[in-house]
Amino acid sequence: MVVLTEQEWRERRTAHRERVTRWTSPHRRRQHHQRKHPVLDFLFTYYSFRPARLERWQPGVGVVLENGQEFLSRKGFTEVPGGVALDPAALTDKRRDSAEFILGLLSATASRPARLGCFGLHEWAMVYRTEPGDVRHSGWPLRLGHEGTDEVVESMPISCTHHDAFRFFTPQARPLNELQPSRADQVRLEQPGCLHANMDLFKWAYKLDPFVPGELIADCFELAVRVRELDMCASPYDLSELGYEPVPIETPQGRADYVRRQREFAEEAAGLRQRLIDTCRDVLTWAAPSTV
């Protein structure tokens, strides 16, 4: 067990909160004024981790918090010699199953080469052959209009491997995809070049809450923010009014830029994915029944 002095854990907790309120505070203000944001709302609506939970720090397993009795009001913590720590009994069978699934999924994803030829066409397939009032972000224009968007979708092969992106394709776009990924295919198909798979590292981190350190959740969240920005810059929407310059994947230069940035994110995500894999293993070992 690692022991954090009261000063150490309070400093880490404060730093964590200050770090994530850069994102949570503006989101709360937008909610208060009922303003939608086509890029950043996704991080708080598609993903189910509430801002208050994102702001909440925890040390992870195997760490004792000196004079940390205030953590006893939170589920999963217990008193131990020297302070307060997470309780292995808090890892229920359901949470153990979740940790094992996440470990298996992330390990399978990490074992594959990155596929970098999708060019972000999943966002285009979500508006393919729609009417102006049918698109998700109806308050924002399509850069090429509906007809031009449809022409882009029909001009290039679509190779989306991510079920949670594919399920939002329009019915007309689904047959155009190289694959027909389902939930059952997730472990078999997920690959480390996929923007959505790399954003989802945030989801897998918070699914392990409170057993994953708060800093790792924040690292995954900040990666998800930046990946989401590329996702929408490469989308058919014109978001330049918000400061998001288009990545025009309908052009050779735009596709090259997309692949370059996609590769950089895949490399960065690989480190976070490995940290989550290690955390899953640590959690499962830490909570394993003693055989002594």
What does this protein look like?
It is a single chain. With 292 residues, the protein is mainly α. The protein has one domain (2-287). It has twelve helices and four strands. The protein has helices at residues 6-32, 42-45, 51-54, 93-110, 121-125, 145-155, 163-166, 186-189, 195-199, 201-207, 214-233, 252-286, and strands at residues 2-4, 63-65, 77-80, 83-86. The strands form two sheets. A two-stranded parallel sheet has the order 1-2. A two-stranded antiparallel sheet has the order 3-4. Strand 3 and strand 4 (83-86) form a beta hairpin. Helix 1 (6-32) runs parallel beside helix 11. The protein is globular and about 65 Å long.
Structural key phrases:
292 residues, mainly alpha, two-stranded parallel ribbon, 4 strands, 3-methyladenine DNA glycosylase
The strands making up the biggest β-sheet line up spatially as 1-2
Low-confidence stretches: none
Q: How many structural domains in the coordinates?
A: 1
CA-atom Rg in angstroms:
21 Å
User: What share of the residues lie within helices?
Assistant: 40-55%
Q: Name the overall outline.
A: globular
SS field, number of helical segments: 12
Listing every helix as H and every strand as E from the N terminus to the C terminus, the arrangement reads EHHHEEEHHHHHHHHH
- Cα distance, first to last residue? 18 Å
Q: Structural class per helix/strand content?
A: mainly alpha
Report the major sheet: 2 strands, parallel
Q: In what range is the share of β-strand residues?
A: under 5%
Mean pLDDT: 96
The beta-strand count equals: 4
